[in-house]
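Q: A reviewer asked whether we had any structural model of the full assembly, not just the individual parts. We don't, so I'm hoping you can provide one. Inputs are below.
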Amino acid sequence: MDSIIVTGGVPLSGTITISGAKNAALPLMTCGLLTDERLTLSNVARLADLRTMSDLLAQHGIDVTPTSEDGRTLAIGGAITNTQAPYDIVSKMRASVLVLGPLLARCREARVSLPGGCGIGTRPVDLHLKGLEAMGAVIELDAGYINATAPAGLHGANIVFPFVSVGATENLLMAASLADGVTILKNAAREPEISDLVLCLTAMGAKIEGIGTDTLTIEGQKSLHGASHAILPDRIETGTYACAAAITGGKVFLENARTEDLESVISALREAGILVTPGENGFWVERRNQLRGIDVMTEPYPGFPTDMQAQFMALMAIAEGASMVTETIFENRFMHVPELNRMGARINAHGASAIIRGVSKLSGAQVMATDLRASVSLVLAGLAATGETTISRVYHLDRGYESVEQKLAGCGARIERVN
Ligand code: UD1
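A: Here is a predicted structure for the entire assembly that you could use as a starting point for your response.
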């Protein structure tokens, strides 16, 4: 199994190019199930999770073929030959459940393994299922699988989410695009990845109103057609490298990054004393002075993203004064705390909040990655620590960060992967 070794202490300097968003690419790839025609996606990051999604689509009969030399443009097409999503793939990646809505809308049946819990929480899919039931699906849970049928097809429905769910909004958006009649999704997620999905569905012939708001109105169509869509830049990768520049006291240009998708993170960075300056096709992040401890609370978009919580906590570990990080989206997302503490951080987590008392330095240690964002927070801590940090279980990182060592090494970081 691979590990990453970071020798800290180098202020990062240079340019990091931001890849296409993983969390947009996953639902966008499943849009390939909504039509037999070709869907072309560009700006696709080369990530383990997207290869898992390709494997899943392949076993449904949908081919995913790279059409550009760099592998960042994918042609997705073919007829659905199988409506079952097996346990071995779904258990690897929870986002596999996003095939449920499209399969049901297209084929009137789907059998999808129930995703289990994961490192950060129980993560049920009840909102996905209730929404599909409201649209006419009959759902039974059997032997760890979701058996869904819609003998008369899906119909439009008025669905009010009791709380915001990114995945449920995506699944129902895709299903509603091919349902009979109008679906209204209220209290829908407003994440930029949802808007990207709306743009792609619209290019495929869907009729959707309310993009970027919490109410989406979808007028179902008889069929959708092929289209081409460029995936938006990854805002979480952007925020992560912004924290890397900040934690090392460096200056980095984040190329292809969009400030507008990251306002809550940028305002937190500024409050902590970091300079963020827009440039052409990206922005600069620089730290000249001591970091200030500040409080953040995770919330659905446009609030502070839960996927940036671990990275921000690593940053606050070396800030002046205390800070408080409150996690409101997932119930168990502080797995990085004991690992950061092993590196000399002074973090005390209690319930949904963690108090971070800033220390003047972190020191390298052997640490273990527990999930995607926790892993990268340990890389960030390692970049700022004295001595060597070895991060094991790096496969978590590869799920969501493309060429993390190369991107950081390109700015001077001493980082290598070892087997
Ligand atoms: C997506 C992101 C993930 C991010 C999360 C929150 C992808 C592939 N993943 O995950 O990186 O951390 O949004 O921004 O885009 N919930 C239920 N029942 C449901 C659905 C969700 O109780 O049916 C709960 C979850 O357990 C969680 C909360 O709602 O506590 C939010 O989850 P959700 O927004 O659905 O996250 P995902 O779509 O799984």
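A: Points you may want to mention in the reply: The radius of gyration is 21 Å. The chain has a mean pLDDT of 96.
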